[in-house]
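dude i think i finally got it to work??
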Amino acid sequence: MPDSIKTTRISLIVAAGLEFATAALFLFIFFAGAALIGWHTERSSLVGSALLGAAGIALAVAFVVLGIVALVVAAGIAKGRPWSRIAGIVLGVLYLLAFPIGTILGLIVLLGLLGRDARDWFGPGRPSQPLAQVPPPSGERSLRSGPSE
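look at this
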């Protein structure tokens, strides 16, 4: 695997970890906010608290799904799957919007997946990993040979 592809794969794994951490942070912040809003209010005023908690759950689920997608794409890149190159480019463009760390990760992903190494790695003529050919021992006859004369 070329170094640029390894770097791209590592960048996607790092991005997935950051997305999981962001999901956990959103859950904490939104649930803490919902608890503080609902602390000394009447029952009829708890709608805002419930909406805040639901928004936190929705954002956390979105980030977890994005993290899982990034891990699946990173695994596809390691295996040289052509679909993972396209999905990685889409993720790289999305990461560009997450300034500043996401922008750096997005640039690394895009540079890795749009370079010459990526064309060779994901190309149609990419050789599959050959199995090691072990010749038969010299003293034994091959199964293909006929009976000895």
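The chain has one domain: 3-122.
im so relieved honestly
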